[in-house]
Amino acid sequence: MSGARMSALAILRGQIERIETAEVVHRHDRVALGHGEVDDALKGGLARAAIHEVFCAGPQGAAATGFVMGLAGRVTARKPLLWVRQDFSEIETGALSMSGLKELGLDPRRVVMVRAADVESALRTSADALACDALGAVVLELWGETRQFDLVASRKLTLAAQGSGVTGLMLRMAAQPLPSTAETRWMLRAAHSPPGSASMPAAPWDAWGAPRFDAELLRNRHGPCGRWIMEWNCDECQFSEPSTYSQPVAAAPAHRPDSAVLWERRAS
Amino acid sequence: MVIHALAEAAERLGLYIGQPLANARAMCPDLKVFDADVVADAKTLSDIADWCDRFTPLVALDPPHGLFLDITGCAHLFGGEAALLKTLVRALARQGFAVGAAIAGTSVCARTLTRQASGSIVADGNETAAIERFPVSALGAGEVITTGLRRAGLKTIGDVAARAPSEITARFGARFSTLLAHALGQGDAPISPRKPPPDYIVEKRFAEPIATDTMIAMTLSRLADTLIASMEKQGKGARRLEAAFFRTDGVVRAIMVETGRPVTKSAVIDRLFRERLDALADPLDPGFGFDMVRLSASRTEIVVQEQRDLDAHVHDNDELAALIDRIAARIGGKRVVVHLPEDTHIPECAVMVAPAQHYLAAAMQAEWPARVESEPPLRPLRLFDKPEPIKVPFAAVPDGPPHQFTWRRALHAVVRVEGPERIAMEWWRQDGKQLTRDYFRIEDAEGLRFWIFRDGLYEGEVFDDDGKPASPNWYVHGLFA
């Protein structure tokens, strides 16, 4: 390759870099998810002001919803969340239940739901919402393969998110990953409850515990990919490494008197 | 079959409304006949009423083919009563309607005049003189009363008016004597307008009709400026705005925009209408152009001024409300929703979905039942509106959970179970007999988690036709994360 051509390429690369970084004000704003290895892979946590995609197979919709809700709960920081979905998705996987959201430790008061009639209006609404910096995050839930969500649409959403600092989360159920401008791309599956230890194997009647996700990071623009089991901790509202016990260990009751004190009282 | 309506030419031949069709055919063999369409007639009348909105906001229907326009305080805008009447009659005639019109102090008097002396204008106090020579049928009091009056020898309205009111009331009822009094200008009944008059109206008329999008947008934003200026003087903001586009050929298109908070900026109005016009399924068709555009605020509210600069939180809420308004203008207010808790144990009724424009503030302050600390989620994240039936082959314990089940044609083997959680229906509000549900939280071999329930207690609530206990049905109600 001749020197002139090389320098032309270098100039173009420089220009593109400037275009891309000029808009990125919120680049270093990252939120730790709580799972050590995942946070390492993500260089400190999930980037705000970017688009993240979560894919799943059809029947795994609820698990992916839980994962997206967890991500949204981490990034919104007490700001409102706009959830955009198609009309029919509540027949396919059920409506997002606010009682269930509360049980995950998240705040249903800050969720505004948009029921779009078709993909175009869903995309347009999300792009609009991503440009509104009063929001913490925008979730766009799409069911099935969609022709309309192409690279151009994805780029539009990314630009809107970079401009305002709002995080965009795409929940793609029953869809195959395609090239896009997303910062990260995940493939979600439901994970089993822990099988129990050798001394105490879990019986069918053993209750299961916190939500667990088998999360595969398929694409990460600024780091390695990987696959982890992540558990959502409903009390602390963050992800964590999987625990061995399916049920949380009960804390010592605070309101009961200590047994020794009780004994002393009886003796006296 | 009888004649419902007829053309002028047919009337000249001696045909009349109510005549049997066979008789009419006998008189005029080459009569052209069409089926009467009462609904379409009513629609046409209502379209004409829409068009008449350009003269006054108070337009009332007088079916089957009349309209009342209350032009009190409007006439001078059109160069006086005579000019208004002339403009109206000429414009309607140009659209192909045969029209009779008259102006009088009371609605009944004006209606009587349109039937006999179209185009007349009667000053206050002259009603009796104006209508006394007309036949009693012009009052429009109904067939029975008109015939009765005629049989009594009272041929004109003047004859009837000459009798003592008590005699008329005794013979024909109080309703007719009131009608007569109104026709003679003694007292007036208010008309009932089709729409409540808007609080604020601004409009722009064009000598040369406009048709381009840019002109329409520019007109709207100018009108918005004027509207805001007049509302601002009284400290009001608009909650519902309507833009009406009057086409030169008489078609009127009205477009409505609602907001969650009172709007006080013309730029916001401008943007809302732009979103709405962009998203119209059937776009605004200018035809040969619009000769008038009207912007009205049909619902207004007093604006509460808030301290904005110091409190970023208030600013954020404003931004969110504005975003919701924009989305609602584009895709409809019912599609943007918030959720409010309901005080019930029945899972599908525990959440109320409400339009975000009106309930945003309520939703932000709602009290949700607290979750139990250090427990896994007890309610699913995805809830089916209608529980989906599943096939359960058998249960090991009669009222225990199933070992496997078929949902959406896939077999799920149960690995872990938690439950039951029994939810009894609310006896104080149910209409029919509803069954107690035993809910189980279940994890299958793939790690998917379900919320399933058995509808009805085992051997307690479900019976077959012979009265013997039947096996209850099972349903999936939700999916856990």
Automatic annotation (TrEMBL), chain A:
It comes from the Bacteria. This is DNA repair protein. It comes from Bradyrhizobium nanningense. The lineage of its organism: Bacteria, Pseudomonadati, Pseudomonadota, Alphaproteobacteria, Hyphomicrobiales.
